[in-house]
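Q: A reviewer asked whether we had any structural model of the full assembly, not just the individual parts. We don't, so I'm hoping you can provide one. Inputs are below.
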Amino acid sequence: MKLITVAGPPSSGKTSVILKTIAQLKVPNDKVGVVKFDSLTSFDHLRYDEQGIANQTGFAGKICPDHFFVSNIEDAVQWGKRKGLSILITESAGLCNRCSPHINGILSVCVIDNLSGVNTPRKIGPMLKYADIIVVTKGDIVSQAEREVFAFNIKEVNANAQILFINGITGQGAFLLAKYWQDTLDIDTLKDRKLRFTMPAAICSYCTGETMIGDTYQMGMLKRMEFEE
Amino acid sequence: MELDAYFTEVSTTKISELLTSYPLASDYLANIRLGKINHELTLPEALLDVDEDILEEFGLTRDSVVLHFCAFLSAFSKNTELNGEISSITILGGRNKSGKPEQVEITVVPGEIVSIVGPTGSGKSRLLEDIECLAQRDTPTGRQILLNGAAPTDERRFATGGKLVAQLSQNMNFVMDLTVREFLEMHAKSRMTTDPAETADRCFACANTLAGEKFTPETKVTQLSGGQSRALMIADTALMSASPIILIDEIENAGIDRREAIKLLANHEKIILMSTHDPLLALRADKRIVIKNGGIAKILVTTETERQSLDHIQQMDEILQNLRNHLRKGDTITMEMIPKMEDNHVGTL
Ligand SMILES: Nc1nc2c(ncn2[C@@H]2O[C@H](COP(=O)(O)OP(=O)(O)O)[C@@H](O)[C@H]2O)c(=O)[nH]1
Ligand SMILES: [Mg+2]
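A: Here is a predicted structure for the entire assembly that you could use as a starting point for your response.
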């Protein structure tokens, strides 16, 4: 089974791109599955159901969504194999822009949209920097110049990635992404593979449910801001 | 230059000098919050004063920053320009929606204009898509696209990185909060032009010749009228776009000199594919692709009669344009404003 991780800010077009790309795969829909990792709610399953794509959703709730992702990804792979899938895609919304679900040796896709501002590529962290393919959506509503500047800013952050422009509504451009997905290697398990980037190290009192503000309540890994006078 | 050579240069040259030879290097440093390190040292020296924790937030170490920086310099020095490198594209027919073979072959060269006509939903965007991904009989239409007369390699298909085709359509808007000048300079900088200010000036002047109502370089791009936006997009695409092929989807009538716009693009050696039913534009093209039922039904070469008719169509267009202007000014329309068309004119149309 092939595994592809798709990550990107909320509403950047991940579900749309995944659906349009699946439509271009030379693999029947019942051999493709999606696992959606989200924090609180998600309605994406309705859209996957509609296309007859096997899917599962997991909610991180009060756990860091990226930690939640790594601790469940191997189970997701095993679920996909039990279902007899030939391609499994994970969709996750990078919420703090710091982490990324990208794993060494696994095709990693980051989706961002042109409307988010030309400097956004410079603000998104490892999710963009460690991706193999960066998909840019919503090019249909901005000028050619902005698309070019946006792509340039992406390249400044991740010079090695392939940049693909995909229209999430019409599917224009999804063909090449489908080709990449089909060409990726099959895997059996993720055991002993490494994340491309470390997850946040912070375990502080607030992680464990503290709600009071003030020095006396703060424990664990803390990082203090410096204010200039 | 190889990575090793960059490594030697970066290890032995002061940052301030590197920034002069590679202006983009300042973006690299700013992106990892190293904009303020001591520019009078070499990068490895300056990094000794940097807290490793900050680097770690970006997944980097003192050693890997240097390597990563070299990779950055090398990536931006590679010539990935497509402009000027494409001397023709050829579309080899596939099948229409009913599976009937298209049996056509059409080659377009820079400076040439091809219009695409056909009902909405007939497959015009599919054709564009085939061109954009350099289809090799592996898309639903079964078409094949050749570059410079040959099938592109897989590597080539992927490496164009969306840069082959520039698009201009009615739905496109500016979303950046910048003035026209800032906007153009930003685009020029991303194209690594040697003098962004000069390039921006030229582009601005050009846009203003196309726009019905003039605008200043200090106008915010988001405040331009529809016609002004379109004029700026077209001038920018002609003078600065990275793409050798331009696809135009119905340019609006109002506020822009469409003929001049098309001429401008063609003069800049772009390959122009234009979906339009505006006779003034469609008949100015060299060829016309007619799309029906998902396939190319035929390819027409603009006839001599069609070309001659352009003058008359032009006159009719001016009459309508004139009427619009009267309406805009609040005038009442009178019969005198509508010149009688001579019978023989109508007859030759
Ligand atoms: N105009 C335009 N809208 C898009 C495009 N891609 C996605 N959208 C819209 O953006 C919204 C968010 O898309 P969705 O796929 O749900 O994003 P996700 O939250 O990242 O999965 C939806 O309304 C889509 O229809 C695109 O290329 N162009
Ligand atoms: Mg989604």
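A: Points you may want to mention in the reply: The first strand of chain B starts at residue 89 and ends at 92. Chain B touches chain A through 48 residues (CB under 8 Å).
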